[in-house]
Amino acid sequence: MIEKRGPGILVAFLLVVGFLAFGFVISNVHGDFRDITGAISAFAMTPPPYFDPVPVNQVVEYGEALGYDVNATPSGSPIDSYFIDDNGNFTINNSGFIKNNTILDLGIYSLNISVNDTDGDINFSLINVTVQDTTSPYFDFSIENQNINCSQEFNYDIDASDNVNISSYFIDDNGNFTINSSGFIKNNTVLSPRRYFLNISVNDSSGNTNSSSIKINVNIVNTTNITANISTLVSFDVVDTSLTLFLVNNVSSTLTLLEEGSIPSSHSDLEELKTINITTDSNTSGNLEWCFINISYSGSELSSAGISNESRLKIYYYNDSSSSWQLEENQDVVTGSNYVWANITHFSLFSVFGNDTNVSDDNDNNDTNDDDSSSGGDNPTFNFTGYWTLTYYVPETQFRAGYNRLLGLRKRVRVTINNTNHYVGVVSLISNAVTINVSSDPQQAVLLDGENKSFDVLGDGYYDINVKLNNIDTESSRANLTITFVHDKIPETTSNESEVSNKTEIPSNETSVKEESGRFRLNLSLKTILWSVGVIVLLVVVLFIAFIVKDVRKDKKLRSKWHVVFVEFYKDLKETFTKSFSDFKTRMKRK
Predict the structure, then answer these.
(1) Is residue 546 part of a domain?
(2) Cα distance between residue 507 and residue 442, in whole Å
(3) Which of 2, 340, 408, 557 is the most buried (most CB within 10 A)?
(4) pTM above 0.85?
(5) In contact, 486 and 460? CB cutoff 8 Å
């Protein structure tokens, strides 16, 4: 642009964004000229880019990658680039994404984050990146419960790992055990035969902790060769306990015993004196006829348990099915010799409880109050003060699967249905039959070899117990019975059928077996008589024919005549004999 500004002045301008060029031409009246030129740079005053949102401090777990995205918005010119002041540990790209270059050690890192636009306008923000460790150590493998004999040393190695490093191990029982900095556990003292519980903890350098528990069973193991039908004493002197076993077969028996440090639950209103856990092999339990358990105690043990009236001491067993303690039926306490005994037919968790008051034993389900009038007594014990001389406890799982047992006279088994005890016992037996008594509501039945019968003991219209006589072991005079839980609806019957059934199928006492046996002998005698008569008749006929044949041979006319008679007689005799024999067999089958 050229302008004339007054006489002798000429002005020229050239304006470009950010740049101004100018020039002046001056003349005088004499015609002299003078020019002046120059330039001025001009810049636009715009604000720099701004962060949106403003960067904040970051926290990252040790071993994990940092990933943080910062965003900047231009105020005028476009965003050109981002950069940070720690390129050794971090990097940032052109879109503002920050990540770590290496594995970051624990600590705090300060970062200056900058952004500029194409005009060179710059903005920055400061943040801290904290690398922390909040992850607990972990055990390299599952810690398993341990079993050792009381004569053995306990050695167990714990392996744990951590994201950073393990600091220390420790346990909560430093009296009996110790653990070193590498996690190796051993016993400090000679361990008593009982169950120990250890809580094992491990720390890392950041103070994070993890823990696990372990159960250590210090057992007494006894292996004894037991001869059949001879009582054998097995002593566990360390825990003042002995077992007297009677097996029906020769067995190499292994018995494992430990004194429990804690019990599943306590019996209401009773104080625990001592608890013993007994396990054995299947050969021993399968051939067990009976066993005496004898648990001794001392005055100091009574005082520690808070029991002053030792005559109230009783042995209970723990019923896993009902999760409760139940009283052993056949037992006694000998206060003068400081021991309690019980006759047991299974191995389980046994505890001696006592109390100074006459509390009722609720958990025994009135086991000692027998339920059948034929028992001859309502408090059976092993020393034969009652009718039943021995009672076998049947675990629920075996009862449902079918429990097999050889039972002699006055022996019985106890089963549990709906938390109520019921019994199946032998009241009499012969070579091919047995009379059984089923209670709590007394019922009796005679079973022959191979026969079975079901019983309703709950009175709900369903059979609950099925008893089968497999055979009679004549050598030991015992019935081989299988007793099984059932739940079958009882078919409806008329009153006449029920009366007949009661008269014929449920004999009331031992006489029924004798009557049954007499009927067998009567049937057997009838058969013998009939066969004998048949043989005699046959001999008479043969002799008669022989004499006739002798005479006929001498006379031809007589021979021809008797030939016809003989043929007819033979036909009639054969037909009569066949029909009679058929009728005889039919009658015998009906009987």
Answers:
(1) yes
(2) 12
(3) 340
(4) no
(5) no
